[in-house]
Known about the structure:
This protein has 14 helices and 6 strands. By secondary structure, it is of the alpha/beta class.
Amino acid sequence: MIKPSAIAIVGATCSGKTQTSIELSQLMEAEVISADSRQIYRMLTIGTAKPTFEERSACPHHFIDILNPDEPFSAGKFADDAQIVATDIINSGKTPLIVGGSGLYVSALCNGIFDEQIDESTLIHRANLEVRLTNEGKDLLYKELSEIDPESAQKYSDQNPRRIIRALEYYYTTGTTLSEAHKNQTDQEKPFTTLWFGIEIERALLYERINQRCISMWNNGLVEETEKVLSMGYSTELNSLNTVGYKETISYLSGEYTKEHAIEKMQQSTRNYAKRQLTWFRKNPSITWISGSPSDISKEIFRHYSNR
């Protein structure tokens, strides 16, 4: 039996994924599953470049504005919930468009939760664990791992701090223990196949778009948005706020950065994030890379999909 197909549209931030998905939804019956680890949060709108209400009204979107900034979420939880939504979309006779730059989220849904690669959320957890290793020592981290994932702890009985951090960061990023992920790696059966497409864009143009978007975010209310969230009592230490854009804005609000320096750091951090995204996706041989305008790319994706 041939499984129905979903379409994954991936690429760097500012590459045009949202507009491409909207264009594609006009060519076929489809709904978007947003695979973005930050757009899930309410109130974090400008800094996450969420699709506008007009764009969302053109095509149903899922997994946007579903949690408050302090509510936990993980790639594993996303994969479980999004698989149910994808199945419902397919059963309704439509095609799921899995759209986003959070590589771990897309991979968790389409390939299964186990993945040795890292994305932005993994790096955040790793940095926090590195600080804890320095301040608390490996014994406490090992005790924590023993409680969370006793199988991995037993395997790492030599208490190698690198392996302890790896197992803990995997759990905190995905919501699944590393030992369980290894067990399930070959056992996961998806109800759909995935056609992968990446948006190819010339590096200089991408960086120009990133720089302009950061300025636009700043001028269109990023500072006010961040102030509002913080005024509601949300901690600056939250993972949702310890990310590109909000992190630099918080430093500006605290007086650490000037406006000019905050924007410059935001641009640099976003460019670095785009590099990491492309490094992640380039390792996936299933991705067909397409360049051009969103209209041209959507037509090419539709052609591939129709001829599958």
